[in-house]
Design brief:
The protein has 1 helix and 9 strands; from the N terminus they run αβββββββββ. The chain is α+β, with helices and mostly antiparallel strands.
């Protein structure tokens, strides 16, 4: 039967072999998050997974606008539409471009949205006015 010291030495060897792997995983995960954040923070003409670049509007005359608050949010936030006419749809995409939520919001005034069921992180929120064919894209951070 192995002694207590032998078992402890064996545990230390296993622990020191796993620890660098855990640290490497955490470092890679953090680096990926940083790269995605930086990539989505720049206003470019590039398209990411079919979503237009952050903070852009499909039309140049901008007949309507959208505000999200609070941002960052715990998942519950307000959407305020200004000057929209007709139906406004809201689509929420994760950082890999998957649609994770969709709903209709009020064309004028404030709507309350609950995304507390989603994971923490960065999301892209696209608002589309069906009547005018215009869209506005915003970033949303869930804490």
């Amino acid at each position: 039967m192995p002694s207590h010291e032998s078992a402890l030495r064996h545990f230390k060897v296993i622990n020191t072999n796993i620890q660098p792997l855990v640290l490497t995983f955490v470092a890679v995960k953090t680096a990926i998050r940083l790269i995605l954040f930086l990539a989505l923070s720049f206003n470019t003409a590039a398209t990411y997974a079919g979503i237009e670049a952050m903070n852009t509007v499909d039309n140049s005359d901008k007949p309507w606008d959208v505000q999200l608050f609070p941002n960052p949010s715990n998942g519950r936030f307000q959407v305020k539409t200004l000057g929209a006419v007709g139906n406004v749809s809201m689509n929420v995409f994760n950082v890999i471009g998957e649609k994770v939520f969709e709903t209709l919001i009020r064309p004028i005034g404030t709507s309350e949205v609950d995304l507390a069921h989603l994971s923490k992180g960065l999301y892209v929120v696209q608002f589309r006015n069906a009547d005018t064919g215009t869209a506005i894209t915003r970033r949303l951070f869930l804490e």
